[in-house]
């Protein structure tokens, strides 16, 4: 903005000076009882807040200055509305009393409010964090995050997600990240390196969804991470000098009140220190506070937790259910916490489960202890109902935004601590005993608040009337004057009548002359010498006295002085509470952790969960496991299933079976077991022995991204590529219907190659459940060690299909797709025709001539059937159009090697065919086999026997 015009009023020059310092913010300029906005700010705010736009005195060019305003007492609602729309607001307050000011009232920007710094309770979600993130890079970052090693015209982000071999322009780049929840004081930092680090940081942004990201000015980091724009996260550019290594380090040392950073795990972590120090400096500059509640920072390493990427969180419905809301999610199912701060903690645990065995076992032991103490647990949870959000209350005190009601809520919350310690006095689990020992009832803080504030104060200090009597002699005196004004005047009037002997003497008040003594003309001769004439009236004279003047001076300003003195007392009290922030935060964290553990114990008791045995081996075994959400919402009885995986003999399970049979539910419940166990929760199973998992990958169900022009199949391939590049032998992978979004040949080839890679890759063989309708994949179990088959059982009864939803060993013989289609309501004619086509496919009577055809009248068994796959006869004489899903085909796909553009097919070994015949005969249930099926099976076995 240009420099103030010479003709601008002094107040407007103040406004323009403030605006020049905060060009990227809307300036709320305090003028009396209103906040006013001018020029561009007025135009923007009027539209955003639906305010009336007016104008004030003309500027130097003769045009009216656009202006709008809002009452200062209603500012919180307007702030939340503006910040919710992504705006920043600089609040420019009157910083001196207008009555005492000499000339222009002094004004300064006292706080800058933005999406990541607004801590008002009405703006924040109680059970969700409000993160502000800072990102720095130790080297220049190119505008395109990655560059493929070959020519590819797709965006770099798409190439990366497609799993191609990538390289960054600066492989040694280190990204430092700091994350702070200003509303609670939670403060963490981390570092990310190389290509994998870029992906991990992108996932972190997507999972945590910070409300605002702070970057050094002129940084290109925002272009490096398209997730920022896709999620519409506001970006703020801060002065780059605050992120320089030495400046950031000194800022961090000063904030943490320490002489070194080694104790915080930051020794040698230059990028992390830069991000953390720069973020603290930014907050100090915008909040104009010392951030008393930010006294500890934690360095987070990726190896510390089980990593669940945003795609897996979505597919497993951990935080959000299938309908896009909390209901139906895992979090909604297990969250029985009483306090909102425990709700946020449980959410954080689900996002980042533990990987340290001892810590997991400590939590499980604590949950077990509380699960068996039903009476104590009930009493504890009942006590917690009086505990408010201690973390955010103390944060508002430290930031100077807490009101009297906030401090009373804090006192009431702390009053529950002694009761909690009594109820949990007999717990035995080490973690519980440690947490109980950390509880500090802060009797001194409670007593200070109780002595100062009444039990039901107003929400805002500016409303006054919130202090108790007896805490301040000066305040008590002014209160007495204000409350007993009439009585004092009546007493003074009686004294003066006695003194003067004038029975008609009156003491009165008006707004022009204030307090006065009125004497009628007939009694003027009796007026004492110390009476000072103030006004002559028709019926007599009005006087004043030194005593009356003194009283007048005291009474007229009593209410103003009461409010002024109460504000002084409250500011001092709030500062004292802020000074105890570390003690209050320690107690709040201990209470929240106890609340989460008790909630998990409550869930275990209510839902019949079992304590899992978590170990460092590779055996993944669960007996009668259940899906925690589906079990609760199912209309009938939920069918439990066993899970048996390990790194050698059962490393990959090919799961076949009908649609709607329960394959996807089985995959999800398997993936949720380690997720629950590694946060310290019991699991929905009769028994469970679970290894430590480092990453969970889930690809279940179809999804697309129309906005980015990505089809369902493209998204599927990107997600699968990420799994193949990132999974380790300690990972768990669940995949559903890989390759179904393209042609059958392509899809089967891709699905086979993916499964084969997961089972044979020497660098990483993750435990895998691979659900598919490509029955050909079951042949992998015959040729690849560690691959086994399983299927979801179902039975036909006349025209109906009965889903048994039980996982059984071995492969399924069919998918029952037509039966499911009939259940879905397809017309009868379509179902009949589909059966005819299926019969032709199974008999391998598809092709007539050379090209695929749809000739033949529906219902005519003698007509030519459908040729789905037409292919020239090969040298071995196999006919054109051999059905790919016919198990008797002479050259079934056992695996594929990419040689140039052609896909070379390897014939299945003869031994595998013999095993196939034996298996089919063993699995044959003679009593359940229909005559037609028996003839078809005989034909298939004959074909297998004749196959060369």
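^ Assign residues to that structure.
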């Amino acid at each position: 903005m240009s420099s103030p015009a010479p003709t601008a009023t002094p107040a407007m020059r103040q406004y323009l000076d403030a605006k020049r310092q905060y060009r990227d913010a809307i300036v709320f300029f305090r003028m009396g009882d209103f906040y006013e906005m001018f020029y561009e700010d007025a135009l923007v705010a009027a539209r955003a807040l639906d305010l009336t736009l007016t104008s004030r005195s003309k500027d130097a060019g003769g045009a009216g200055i656009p202006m709008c305003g809002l009452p200062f007492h209603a500012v919180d609602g307007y702030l939340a509305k503006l910040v919710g729309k992504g705006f920043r607001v600089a609040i420019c307050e009157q910083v001196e009393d207008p009555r005492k000011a000499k000339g222009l009232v002094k004004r300064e920007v006292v706080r800058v409010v933005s999406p990541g710094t607004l801590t008002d309770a009405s703006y924040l979600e109680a059970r969700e964090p409000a993160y502000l993130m800072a990102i720095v890079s130790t080297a220049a970052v190119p505008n395109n995050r990655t560059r493929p090693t070959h020519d590819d015209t797709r965006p770099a982000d798409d190439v990366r997600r497609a799993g191609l071999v990538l390289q960054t322009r600066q492989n040694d780049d280190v990204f430092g990240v700091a994350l702070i929840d200003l509303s609670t004081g939670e403060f963490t930092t981390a570092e990310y390196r190389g290509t994998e680090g870029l992906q991990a940081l992108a996932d972190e942004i997507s999972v945590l969804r910070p409300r605002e990201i702070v970057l050094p000015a002129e940084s290109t980091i925002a272009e490096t991470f398209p997730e920022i724009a896709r999620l519409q996260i506001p970006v703020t550019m801060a002065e780059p000098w605050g992120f320089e290594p030495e400046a950031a380090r000194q800022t961090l040392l000063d904030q943490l009140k320490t002489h070194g950073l080694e104790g915080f795990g930051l020794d040698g972590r230059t990028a992390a220190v830069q991000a953390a120090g720069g973020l603290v400096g930014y907050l100090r500059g915008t909040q104009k506070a010392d951030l008393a509640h930010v006294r500890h920072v934690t360095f987070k390493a990726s190896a510390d937790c089980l990593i669940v990427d945003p795609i897996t969180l979505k597919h497993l419905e951990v935080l959000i259910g299938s309908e896009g809301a909390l209901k139906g999610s895992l979090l909604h199912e297990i969250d029985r916490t009483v306090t909102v701060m425990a709700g946020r903690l449980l959410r954080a645990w689900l996002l980042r489960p533990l990987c340290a065995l001892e810590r997991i076992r400590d939590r499980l032991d604590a949950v077990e202890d509380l699960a068996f103490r039903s009476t104590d647990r009930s009493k504890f949870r009942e006590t917690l109902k009086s505990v408010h959000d201690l973390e955010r209350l103390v944060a508002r005190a430290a930031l100077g935004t807490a009101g009297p009601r906030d401090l009373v809520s804090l006192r009431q919350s702390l009053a529950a601590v002694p009761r909690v310690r009594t109820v949990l006095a007999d717990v035995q689990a080490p973690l519980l005993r440690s947490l109980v020992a950390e509880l500090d009832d802060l009797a001194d803080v409670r007593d200070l608040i109780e002595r100062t504030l009444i039990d039901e104060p107003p929400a805002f200090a500016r409303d006054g009337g919130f202090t108790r009597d007896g805490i301040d002699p000066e305040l008590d005196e002014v209160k007495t004057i204000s409350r007993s004004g009439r009585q004092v005047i009546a007493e003074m009037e009686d004294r003066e009548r006695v003194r003067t002997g004038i029975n008609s003497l009156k003491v009165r008040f008006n707004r022009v002359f204030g307090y006065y003594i009125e004497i009628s003309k007939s009694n003027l001769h009796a007026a004492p010498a110390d009476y000072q004439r103030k006004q002559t009236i028709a019926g007599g004279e009005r006087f004043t006295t030194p005593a009356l003047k003194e009283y007048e001076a005291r009474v007229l300003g009593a209410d103003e002085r009461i409010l002024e003195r109460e504000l002084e007392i409250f500011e001092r009290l709030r500062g004292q509470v802020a000074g105890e922030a570390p003690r209050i935060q320690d107690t709040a964290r201990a209470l929240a952790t106890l609340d989460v553990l008790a909630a998990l114990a409550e869930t275990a008791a209510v839902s019949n969960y079992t304590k899992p045995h978590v170990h460092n081996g590779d055996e993944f075994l669960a007996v009668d496991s259940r899906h925690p959400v589906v079990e609760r919402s199912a209309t009938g009885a939920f069918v439990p299933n066993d899970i048996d995986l390990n790194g050698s003999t059962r490393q990959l399970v090919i799961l076949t079976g009908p649609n709607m049979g329960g394959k996807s539910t089985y995959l999800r419940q398997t993936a949720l077991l380690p997720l629950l166990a590694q946060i310290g929760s019991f699991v929905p199973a009769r028994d469970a022995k679970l290894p430590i998992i480092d990453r969970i990958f889930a690809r279940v169900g179809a999804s697309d991204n129309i906005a980015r022009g990505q089809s369902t199949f493209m998204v599927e391939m990107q997600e699968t590529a990420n799994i193949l590049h990132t999974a380790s032998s300690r990972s768990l992978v669940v995949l559903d219907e890989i390759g179904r979004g393209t042609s059958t040949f392509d899809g089967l080839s891709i699905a086979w190659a993916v499964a084969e890679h997961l089972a044979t890759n020497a660098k990483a063989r993750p435990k895998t459940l691979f659900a598919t309708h490509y029955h050909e994949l079951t042949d992998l179990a015959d040729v690849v060690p560690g691959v086994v088959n399983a299927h979801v059982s179902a039975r036909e009864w006349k025209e109906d299909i009965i889903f048994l939803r039980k996982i059984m060993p071995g492969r399924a013989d069919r998918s029952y797709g037509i039966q499911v289609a009939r259940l879905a309501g397809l017309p009868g004619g379509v179902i009949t025709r589909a059966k005819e086509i299926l019969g032709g496919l199974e008999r391998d009577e598809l092709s007539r001539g050379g090209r695929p055809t749809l000739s033949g009248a529906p219902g005519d068994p003698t007509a030519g059937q459908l040729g789905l796959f037409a292919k020239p006869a090969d040298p071995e004489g196999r006919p054109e159009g051999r059905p790919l899903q016919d198990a008797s085909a002479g050259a079934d796909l056992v695996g594929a090697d990419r040689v140039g553009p052609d896909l070379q097919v390897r014939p299945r070994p003869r031994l595998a065919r013999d095993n196939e015949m034996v298996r089919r005969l063993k699995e044959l249930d003679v009593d359940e086999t229909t005559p037609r099926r028996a003839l078809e099976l005989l034909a298939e076995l004959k074909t297998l026997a004749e196959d060369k």
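Residues 251 and 784 are 58 Å apart (CA to CA).
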